[in-house]
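Reminder to self: keep the SMILES exactly as supplied, no canonicalising. Ligand is NAP.
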Amino acid sequence: METTKLSNGVEMPMEGFGVFQVPEAEVCEQAVCDAIAAGYRLIDTAAAYFNEEAVGAAIKKSGVPRKDLFITTKLWIQDAGYENAKKAFQTSLDKLGLDYLDLYLIHQPMNDYYGSWRAMEELYKTGKIRAIGVCNFYPERLADLCLNAEIAPMVNQVELHPFFQQPGALKTMEEFKVQPEAWGPFAEGKFGIFTNETLSAIAAKHKKTVAQVILRWNVQRGVVVIPKSVHKERIEENLNIWDFTLSDEDMAQIAKLDKGHSEIIDHSTADTAKFLNGWKIHD
Ligand SMILES: NC(=O)c1ccc[n+]([C@@H]2O[C@H](COP(=O)([O-])OP(=O)(O)OC[C@H]3O[C@@H](n4cnc5c(N)ncnc54)[C@H](OP(=O)(O)O)[C@@H]3O)[C@@H](O)[C@H]2O)c1
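Structure tokens returned for the bound complex:
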């Protein structure tokens, strides 16, 4: 497994395993057990996924030394602000059964995220978190945080797949030395991505699957990927991307698939802000 060195020197695996939309404890625990057995070391959960306990149980079961794992969770909007963030961090840690996190992310650029960030900077300095970052910070928000925070975010997890490639956002991340991480690397399996003609032709040429080509394309652009699956064969298939290389021509063909906008979520609208702020994870 290749790794990337974050701006603070921490090594982060280039591929991990995501568990969004797997709220059933047994299913999630089994999937994470399968993923760790297959060789994934980065696990990406969130307080808002309601499965931190299941992830924690799988980590315990795996028998893999804690230092060899890279565990990420995220702070939800409802828990934004200095005091709330500190409390929410401890709640997540307790649910995961861990005493430190590898990466803690602000889940959405909403509510008092500057207050959250100050709490995260403090936790980072005490060693409770090895790296801190954000999600869904579009260029202007990311630049603003980088310019004003004492410690700049090390990672920005955003939607990145062949239909929404975000070259401008990647440029801003490069400028501020923020590692890009792709959520929804398969566009959540929507829009016929697995039967797309261009991707299928490239996959056939390399004797790989479309899923493997998609993941390989993102890692070759320097983007960390965290595909989700609850099927063991797919979990294994998605990790088998380290024995081939896409050519410049393949990369150029895939670049043409970019629609230039997201068809999953548009963070710039009031409706999205209303929807996300309305999503409560506790009383
Ligand atoms: N920060 C954020 O705001 C944010 C937002 C969304 C997601 N995320 C993170 O990013 C992770 C990945 O994104 P995602 O879960 O939304 O979607 P995704 O990984 O793009 O796609 C998952 C979908 O693809 C299917 N799939 C997986 N591997 C496949 C394969 N080899 N062949 C065919 N189908 C396959 C899965 O089905 P099965 O499970 O049935 O196999 C599922 O329907 C999440 O789990 C989460 O950790 C973060």
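Points to follow up:
The mean pLDDT is 98.
The beta strands are 3-5, 11-13, 16-18, 42-44, 70-75, 101-106, 129-135, 155-159, 179-183, 224-225.
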